[in-house]
Amino acid sequence: MQIDQLLLAKEQAAAVNASEQKRAEQKLILANKELVFQYSEKAKRAEELVIANKELLYQNKEKAKRIAELIIAKKELLVENKEKIKRGIDQINKNKMIAFQRDRLKKITSLLPGAVFQYQLFSDGSSCFPFFSEAIIQMYRVTPEEICKDAFSFFANVHPLDLEGFFASIQKSAKKLAIWHYEYRVKFDDGTIRFHYGEGIPKKEEDGSVLWHGIITDITERRQMEEALLESDRQRTDILNDIQDVVWSLSWPDMTANYISQSAEQVTGWPFQDFFADPSLWAKMVHPDDQQISEQAFDQLLKKGSAVRECRIVRPDGTIVWINDRSKVVYDKDNNIIRLDGVLRDITASKQAALFKEIHHEILEILNEPGALYDAIPRLIDTLKIKGGFDAVGIRLQDGDDFPYFAQNGFL
Questions:
Q1: What does 184-253 look like in DSSP terms, one character per residue?
Q2: How far is CA 191 from the centre of its chain?
Q3: Calpha distance 164→310 (Å, rounded)
């Protein structure tokens, strides 16, 4: 009984165990399925993680690439900024140098007696003033900025009568690339007129234009002085020409005429211009018998600085003229001879008066001598011929209505 119970219990236990085992196996199967599912999900998530990691890796590579590009760009930007900074510094230094040079140029040009300029003429006929110094303000009553902006403000002040000549001188200089120089007047709205003189050196530019560098000066005072001197010279010349004496001045040592008063032609008979054309005329017109007197006076002039000569000169028509020539030497500061000045006077009348007086006195002495008049006649004729310098002398005595020769000497 007991065994049966044990067997039954064993069977029951076995049945229970089988049932439990079956449930356990089912749980195990379910657990395995769950595990497989979890593994599958894990694998899926692992695959997704791999994909995500790949995507992240790609993104990181792209980021690294962009970072590298950004670094390169920053480096390039840094280099570019450095270049810009360098160029900026260079430009600042250049501007400072330009400002310094302009300031120095302004100071230098302010010391010059005129307005320094640049004038540019283009191939199409237009022109401008790239530069004008501050002196233009006083000379043209406009600023350098106004003229550089509009050249018309310069030409508007040029006298209308000189404007055509002004432009013609510019064109001539541009055509030949020759130094430009022109004297002209400027006229302002208030009627003031000033004289200006411009001079500039042209240069051909690469664009075909011509650029002048030059200076314009105000010569009004100089012109006024020149005109005053000319007027003074005219007055002096008029005065000297009204004087019958010959005022003369010769350069040394060539003896060319610096000045001869026009009375020289009246006194000497030689054309006025001949004295300027022929320096040797002074020596040529001296009478051959008086050449030694003239040479001695010239030697005295050079040795003592002054001389007086009285001699005869021969006019082109053969007429003899007595002259008194007072001359002096003019020296420079180093005591070198620079010219000879003098005054020449016609003394023919006084010489003849003195001669006639002497002849008259001798004739009276001969006539007052005791003896026959007939014997005195030959002596009278000789005295008249020798003292008077005549080639022939005759004495006529009235015989009725006729005057036959009583005595003569020298007639054929």
A1: EEEE-TTS-EEEEEEEEEEEE-TTS-EEEEEEEEE-HHHHHHHHHHHHHHHHHHHHHHHSSSEEEEEETT
A2: 28
A3: 59
- What distance in Å separates the CA atoms of residue 300 and residue 305, rounded to the nearest whole number? 7
Q: Measuring CA to CA, which residue among 118, 92, 93 is closest to residue 105?
A: 118
pTM of the predicted protein model:
0.43
Q: What is the dihedral of CA 146, 147, 150, 152, to 10 degrees?
A: 120
- Mean pLDDT, rounded, for 215-229: 89
Q: Give the DSSP H/E element, type plus range, for residue 338.
A: strand 337-346
Write the DSSP assignment of 97-136 as a string of letters: HHHHHHHHHHHHHHTSSSEEEEEEE-TTS-EEEEEE-TTH
Task: Identify whether the C-beta of residue 137 lies closer than 8 Å to the C-beta of residue 161.
Answer: no
176-to-173, 181, 202 alpha-carbon distances in Å: 5, 13, 9
Output the DSSP codes for 21-64. HHHHHHHHHHHHHHHHHHHHHHHHHHHHHHHHHHHHHHHHHHHH
Q: How many CA atoms are closer than 13 Å to the CA of 177, on its beta-carbon side?
A: 7
Per-residue HEC secondary structure of 315-337 comes to CCCCCEEEEEEEEEEEECCCCCE
| HSE toward the beta carbon, residue 155, CA cutoff 13 A | 14
* Residue 155, helix vs strand vs coil: helix
Residue positions counted in the chain? 412
Please spell the DSSP secondary structure of 237-292, one letter per residue.
HHHHHHSSSEEEEEETTT--EEEE-THHHHHH-S-TTHHHH-TTHHHHTB-GGGHH
Determine the Cα angle at 89 with ends 87 and 91, to 5°.
65
pLDDT tens profile 343-383: 999 998 888 888 778 777 777 777 777 776 667 777 777 77
Q: Computed over its alpha carbons, how large is the radius of gyration of the chain?
A: 63
Which DSSP helix (H) or strand (E) runs through 309?
strand 306-314
Q: Given pLDDT bands bounded at 50, 70 and 90, which one contains residue 213?
A: very high
Q: In Å, how far from its chain's centre is CA 329?
A: 38
Cβ neighbours of residue 223 under 8 Å, at least 6 residues apart? 195
- Closest alpha carbon to 183 in 172, 173, 194: 194
Which helix (H) or strand (E) is 349 found in, with range? Answer: helix 348-367
